[in-house]
Amino acid sequence: xxxxxxxxxxxxxxxxxxxxxxxxxxxxxxxxxxxxxxxxxxxxxxxxxxxxxxxxxxxxxxxxxxxxxxxxxxxxxxxxxxxxxxxxxxxxxxxxxxxxxxxxxxxxxxxxxxxxxxxxxxxxxxxxxxxxxxxxxxxxxxxxxxxxxxxxxxxxxxxxxxxxxxxxxxxxxxxxxxxxxxxxxxxxxxxxxxxxxxxxxxxxxxxxxxxxxxxxxxxxxxxxxxxxxxxxxxxxxxxxxxxxxxxxxxxxxxxxxxxxxxxxxxxxxxxxxxxxxxxxxxxxxxxxxxxxxxxxxxxxxxxxxxxxxxxxxxxxxxxxxxxxxxxxxxxxxxxxxxxxxxxxxxxxxxxxxxxxxxxxxxxxxxxxxxxxxxxxxxxxxxxxxxxxxxxxxxxxxxxxxxxxxxxxxxxxxxxxxxxxxxxxxxxxxxxxxxxxxxxxxxxxxxxxxxxxxxxxxxxxxxxxxxxxxxxxxxxxxxxx
Length: 480
Ligand code: BGC
What we know:
The chain is mainly α. It is 79% helix and 1% strand. It is built from 19 helices and 2 strands. The protein has helices spanning 16-24, 26-48, 61-90, 92-112, 116-144, 150-175, 181-186, 189-199, 206-211, 215-225, 228-241, 258-273, 276-288, 294-322, 324-347, 353-372, 374-384, 391-443, 452-479, and strands at 53-54, 57-58. A hairpin with a 2-residue loop joins strand 1 and strand 2. Helix 3 runs antiparallel to helix 4 (92-112). The longest helix is centred in the C-terminal third of the chain and has 53 residues, at 391-443. Bound molecules: beta-D-glucopyranose (BGC). Beta-D-glucopyranose (BGC) binds at residues 35, 158, 161-162, 165, 271, 276-277, 280, 308, 375, 402, 406.
């Protein structure tokens, strides 16, 4: 079996791993496409359906639009809530297949929707698929990757998220003349079908297999994706670490896991409340207020999409060399400065000429700094820092919070602008970004180059040392 794919590149890897990773990363494409496509489609959905009633109830049109847009996020919250546990039960690969089918069905429902109600159902179904994909994509990639290139391979998922957003912007642009929103939304079926067809032939995560008591299968997968000398070593580490624990939600609150629960929750929320999706969803609106015309602002939005992709490529190339922390901290620092400048520019009266460009430039740089740090590092970190027994569950929990944060920001952004103005809103995100910087500096560990098992061992050891120190403190306190 192992010889069939024994195509080593001399660095201890096996090139089959790149095929596996590229296919699994298509999970991110579903996520990104879904994020980027709706703003464009919405412009024309308004023209097809009279947005006045839902199920016979008269509802404010803007609220109906809000429900159509956020329906996918609500679906994603549900998908992520169940996705983690399901990934532990069904296996990572099988859940990817299920997610792809659900996403496919959701896109189909939207493409043929005869009325608003069906369209909303389609959005929610689609979102459930995205919710599954957002948990299991990074999880699978992390468990199948050799430690030395794990950062890059898991971050391919963020690269496909950003590519999905960019493709959606371009699709919106391409179909905007005829206002063909059914095509825009229906095209989501394509990546879903490719992901499904590809994953049928891909192996299951070796770590999950081992945990299921399928050691021979786990060894076989490692043999297909590693060089020979690495197989024994990695299997040994897996054996030592995976103990039979139940992996329930309660295990997440055990004292030795708690520090990483805090890190995951913090990163999940900070990734959203620092405002990235105000740009992903509302870029044309923001750009118009800097003095751009309609078409120019659509084109500049595509420019933002390109910056997002290009800087994510840079992150993919750097993340296993520099490590996660330097990228995260530098990215957050840059985002803070850019938000400060953006707020200042909008504070001045009359945005035109040079000032309009300054605003656009800082918006692009803000996205660039997100793309190099918080964007990829969040998804990577949460796939690395949890012990095997609860990895799926833990990732599910923090991913739910990430989607909830996403929903919160997208629902409140326009209202915040009404109340605090654009300057106040960007400064608010700026202050939150500064808090994120302090949080990450203090609490986020470096995981570069270490196997998932080493990371887990470290966590256990730190907890033991902490307990011992606390014990000492108590006993020396009682001596007094
Ligand atoms: C975030 C998404 C965001 C995207 C932008 C992802 O890491 O989770 O909410 O839309 O990055 O590139």
